[in-house]
């Protein structure tokens, strides 16, 4: 049996077995190698079968503009701008938005003392423009969201052509029928999926939910592992457990529903984005996904989120995962 979850716990309690409380032995789960199947042909593979390279804190790159207060800005998570990330094959973008008099602005921790920060609508416009010129591509945006609903709505309204590409899984029967094929998404032109880490409950008091204007509540559509592998240097923690497991929330990585499999966001980065450490970690991405995170979630990662995506060749891990499906 699994021991009760301690108050305030942020990960599942240890697995213990025995005849009673005085006769317990701790079991440690070891990595496993599950049986997989070949990836279906391009016209038949569904969104949840595909893996996408994802840039953690994609805006924190020091190229497009300021992203953090002094000293914090000495540690960018990426070193290439959003347009270059798109051309390099990044298809998932984790963005932090903070509310200022200018709207929803991309900043890490705070926008105070940040020089030339970038507005959310600017980076979304870059993505929409890319999708216009690449009609066979699909992009996902993850918002760490610190803005009011109406501020976010107004920000999205500034993006030319957003409605043409915005994908609404809440309106297309995904929960009943599963995710569409990539070919179907391409045919409809709906190739931009936007998530917020806010919850429906947190928006209810304001009377407007974000999905009414096309921003999906991430916890309703995805599962996600805990975000940190440890500090910026030294040994890394490869254990894979849900980010959303605390005293008030239980969303296990294994969560599924009849006819519906949540997308799996696999985080693979540390507290401090040191370039050399990220390069080493990224070189081990496929191994951790196969031996630790896939068995823990019983599904293949849809998004592999990394710092310094240009180090350690995480694109090779994405390519490898895109050769098979998980049962």
From TrEMBL:
GO terms for molecular function: phosphoric diester hydrolase activity. It comes from the Bacteria. This is Phospholipase. CDD domains: PI-PLCc_At5g67130_like. InterPro entries: PI-PLC_domain, PLC-like_Pdiesterase_TIM-brl. The lineage of its organism: Bacteria, Bacillati, Actinomycetota, Actinomycetes, Kitasatosporales. Gene3D superfamilies: Phosphatidylinositol (PI) phosphodiesterase. It comes from Streptomyces sp. SID7958. GO terms for biological process: lipid metabolic process.
